[in-house]
Amino acid sequence: MISTDAAILSAIMVTSGTQTTPALPGGIFAWIICNSRKRSPIGGWLMFYYWQLYSGSLMSAIFFGINLNSYVPENFNVPNRFVLFIISAVPALLLLLIQVAVATILLTVRTSDMLLLLRWVIAVGIVAAVVEGVIDVAYFPDNLVFPILSSVQYLLWLAYFFRSTRVQHVFFVQDWDTAVNSIYPPKLKIAI
């Protein structure tokens, strides 16, 4: 039987290399670091989310700069295609910026209100990925893999932010310092 952590790790690794995720082996390295900090309030899968968000944002900025010519209308034969490309691509980039801003504020304030806002941003990301996928099916079929992977990633993180015990204790109950001992019991050290 596969553990929940292994299933989530496998699913997230499948989405590695998308617009907001680090590619393997960086993802494995990040997971090792995040797993070693699982007793910290921002550790484990929550730290992996932030690692993925920030490294993915950096990669998106780099690729946006490299492919800046893709956002020029003269590169499209039909003006309609440029508009569809913008409708398809720009919301994902804007949502990534908004997600980074909200998640960063959440790190600082650690309140349930900011967590609810982050959940909504992730949910809107799912809708934007579906719209992007519909446009890509008809006009940009070579790009269809990106909205599919983004949708899977958004769904996994949204499920995490609803189901995680860590998220509940850090942002809602705000008792991680005491709850951590029952979730991850301290390792007993044998004195010799």
> Residue-averaged pLDDT, rounded?
84
Instruction: Please compute the radius of gyration using only Cα atoms.
Output: 19 Å
Using the alpha-carbon principal axes, give the shape. elongated
Which sheet architecture does the biggest sheet show? none
Range of strand content? under 5%
Give a quick summary of the entry.
This protein is mainly alpha-helical. It has 8 helices and no strands.
Describe this structure in words.
The structure is a single chain. By secondary structure, this protein is an all-alpha fold. The chain has one domain (4-183). Helix content is 73%, strand content 0%. The chain has eight helices and no strands. The chain has helices spanning 4-14, 26-36, 44-66, 79-109, 112-139, 145-163, 165-173, 176-183. Helix 4 (79-109) runs antiparallel to helix 5. The longest helix has 31 residues, at 79-109. The radius of gyration is 19 Å and the shape is elongated. Mean pLDDT is 84; it is low at 1-22.
